[in-house]
Amino acid sequence: MKTTRLLVSADRPEPGTISRAAAILKEGGIVAFPTETVYGLGADAFNTSAIQKVFEAKGRPSDNPLIVHIAELSYLDSLAVSIPVIGRTLANEFWPGPLTLVLQKTSEVPGTVTAGFDTVAVRMPHHPVALSLIRQVGRGVVAPSANTSGRPSPTTAQHVLDDLDGRIDAVLDAGPTLIGVESTVLDVTSVPPIILRKGGLPKEDIERVVGTVHTKPDTEVSPRSPGNRYRHYAPRARVILVAQGDSAALAKVLHESEGSMKKITCVLHSIPDPARSERVVVRRAPEAIEDFSRVLFEYLRECDKTGMEFIIVESVREEGLGAAVMDRLRRASAATSK
Question: Which residues pair with 101 in a beta bridge?
Fold first, then answer.
């Protein structure tokens, strides 16, 4: 298979290009496309053979559920039943946007989408290209991150091609994504609702609208949510976290590596630069958490491309979008610690 790269405007997607991609999906193919969070790998949510292609292209375990992306609230009728009031309130407030709602599914939703569970994860992306594509398909589109399973999520079309070139039909290239981490997944079948995956919509914003929501402890996982049960967000290099502002911890890690020929990148935002050497590279992370989130996965992928063996990352404050950034960094660190 040859993967076709389709250039498209992020703000005013060309109808002809979108129609070409939509035709591929309608015919049972798979197409990567941008959302405001990361690039997703799309397939018709009601075509089981197309969905299977997504799992095969990514190397994704079949018991890891998928998120269905929609373009209109009316699409929910074929996907979910008994939508709670709180779910509709959140959809009205935050869709389109980086919030995924876990709802009771209809019998029309294939079990391959939900990993056999009686719930389905749904969101409406906030990106003109994604919305135009889904509208042309005319029904829900599954779209897990368009990367090899376990790797850092793709925030550019080139990241998609680095992992999946030759495995998928096409990628719609509209430039880099805006948020850089995946959507927040909220289970509204529970009372109170439970955040199953931290993401692009902070808990504080959700609670401002509907009151208290619970957060799944980091030591627990939920099979209802994508991105929880398996190795995720990990580069090939080992990721080591140091506390925010802890220059002594950074110095200790660097001292322990002295005498080795290991290549190291330090991603820092408040700790001063350590003494540089041929094997130590320093990247200054953006101070604003929104900017750091946008480039996080890009940094991890760049380190792999340049042959880095260790990535030392200075932690950020766990509030707002920082909670999602730290979730991804902890998962990357745990996955590469062995």
Answer: 122, 186
d(CA 144, CA 131): 16
Mean pLDDT in residue range 246-254: 95
Strand (E) or helix (H) holding 116? none
CATH of the domain at 299: 3.40.50.11030
pTM of the model: 0.93
- Containing 310, the helix (H) or strand (E) segment is strand 310-314
Q: Is 220 within the bounds of a domain?
A: no
Which domain covers residue 58, as residue numbers? 4-215
90, two tokens: 């959140």
Alpha-carbon span 207 to 223, nearest angstrom: 24
SS3 122: strand
Over the stretch 25-58, which tens digit does the pLDDT of each residue have? 999 999 999 999 999 999 999 999 999 999 999 9
User: Are the C-beta atoms of residues 242 and 314 closer than 8 Å to each other?
Assistant: yes
Tell me: do 132 and 280 sit in the same domain: no
DSSP, res 78? G
Q: How far is CA 171 from the centre of its chain?
A: 16
Domain of residue 114, CATH code: 3.90.870.10
DSSP, collapsed to helix, strand or coil, labels residue 161 as helix
